[in-house]
Every structure is written in structure tokens, then in C-alpha cells.
Amino acid sequence: MTSSPRFRTFAFACGSAFAIFYVVALKFDLALFTVYPSFGVVLLGTHHSRDVVAPSLGFLAPAMYWYGWTATAALGALLFGLIAALLPERWTRKFSPGLGWMIPVAAMMGCVYLTLPWFRL
Amino acid sequence: MVTALLIVHGLVAIALLGAISHQTLATWAPAHARPRSFFGRLRTVRSASFANTIVILYAVSTLLGGIVYLRFRVDIRPGLERAGHWPALGLFDLKEHFISIGLALLPAYWVSWRQPHADETSRTRVAVTSVLAFIVWWSFVIGHVMNNIMGFGR
């Protein structure tokens, strides 16, 4: 299965789509779930402490979104990859395999841009 | 327990760093390098044989990092925030973003090494490997820096 052209298409489409979906999830804070490690609680969706009681709750119960952003992007990328793998080969051949690394590099630059506020504090 | 996991995470990361650095240097080495030179010797090793190992090491390292990260968020990060290490926290955030992007790049990386397409230039393989090598180096260095600022056991 892994040697088939479909798997190749899936691999490159999935990697590129994940990078795009990850930046989108990061920008719009679209975590599939939120993890509260101090309580061992996982809540579906994105939750911020101000939604519950007060912003100071963030120090008492820190929330983690990285797992959720990764899950959101993985879900989107999986669907995109499967659809791309099912497309006829004459369609997918038009896309350069170079996009398989250019899009992730662009996404990494997007992450740098979205992280810039940390360096202005 | 978490300290032991952090040490294992570091050791796996060192193995990954060595493997991917070797493979990346081999792909960048000039094809006409003298056989007995440093680059010549690098090129004699079959780089494709590293691919499976690198995929496994990357996945294991990410898994261990993902487990240790829970403790980091509760016990270490608040201390870093109170101490005002904002740039370091920003660099660490980039590490987590890059690792996720690298994780999704693994199937494409594996395919480009194990199943190279007939009508595809080696440029894609070199580029994907280089991107992954950058992510691994970035993660290793930033993880090391964070551990030096405020490691476990405090």
C-alpha cells in the first residue's frame, strides 16, 4: 500500500495540508480540545479561563492548546490527504512535489509571525 | 519519573540529531567529492537506510516530549513567566509549532527516500530532509536552552 502512487499523493498532500491547517488553527485558536494538565481534564473545543471565572484562573489551572491545534490540523490534513489520494492521477500530477516542502516552510514562517508578540513583551 | 522521561527524551533527540545531520550532510555533499575526504566518506553510506530510523526516532521523541510537556506547563512555565523569560517562551512555542509541522512531514519524507519517483528530481528529497533537519536542530537547541534556564528538579 505504501509503495502505491496513491500513498505518495496522500503523503505529500497530507504534509502540506497539515501545515496550512496548523497555521489557521493557531491564528484563529481552533483547538479540537483543551487540556488542563493540573486537573487531568480534557475538554472538547477551545476554552479560555476568562470564559469561566476570571483571567487569574489561568495561573491556577493552566490550559494547553498545542495538542488541540495539532489534532485540528491532523483531522483536516487526513481528510484532505484521503481526498487527494482518491483523485485521478492525471489531476494530482499537475501539482509539483516541491510544494510538499515549500508549503511547510511557508507555514513555519507564518508561525514565526504569529509568535512575534512574545518578543515584544 | 518525569526527570527520567526527560533524560530519555534528550537521548532519543541526540540519536535523531546524529542520524538526520549525517543524512542531510550526505545529501548536500558534492557528488564529485574525493572518496577519502570527509564528504566522500559521508556519501558512501546509503542515506536511504537512515529513513526508517529517523521516522521512528522523530515519532518517539515527539511522544516523549508530548508527555514531558504536561509537567513543563504546570511546574516550569509559570516560573518562567514570573521571571519574564518571554523571548525564551516564544522560542519554545516555535519549537512546538515546528515539531507538529515536522511530524506531518514524515510520510512525505519517508516516501521521498524509500519510494523515489522516477520523474522526480532529488531536489525534493534534499529539501524535505533539510527542513526536517532544521526542525530537529531548532527543537534540540531550544529544548536545551529551556532546560538550562529552568530545568526539572527545582
Task: Kindly describe this structure.
The complex is a heterodimer of chains A (121) and B (154). Chain A is built from five helices and two strands. In chain A, strand 1 (33-36) and strand 2 (41-44) form a beta hairpin. The mean pLDDT of chain A is 87. By secondary structure, chain A is mainly α. Chain A has helices at 5-27, 57-60, 66-86, 89-92, 99-115, and strands at residues 33-36, 41-44. The N and C termini of chain A lie far apart (50 Å). Chain B has 154 residues and is mainly alpha-helical. Chain B has helices at 2-28, 38-44, 51-82, 86-114, 122-150. The longest helix of chain B is centred in the middle third of the chain and has 32 residues, at 51-82. Classes of the chains: A mainly alpha (121), B mainly alpha (154). The interface between A and B is large, with 43 and 39 residues.
Helix content of chain A: 55-70%
The average pLDDT of chain B is: 88
Low-confidence stretches of chain B: none
Oligomeric description of these chains? heterodimer
What is the average per-residue confidence, as pLDDT of chain A, rounded to a whole number? 87
Please sum up the structure shown.
The complex is a heterodimer of chains A (121) and B (154). With 121 residues, chain A is mainly α.
List the helices and strands and how they pair.
The complex is a heterodimer of chains A (121) and B (154).
Chain A: H1 5-27, E1 33-36, E2 41-44, H2 57-60, H3 66-86, H4 89-92, H5 99-115
Chain B: H1 2-28, H2 38-44, H3 51-82, H4 86-114, H5 122-150
Helix pairs in contact in B: 1-3, 1-5, 3-4, 4-5
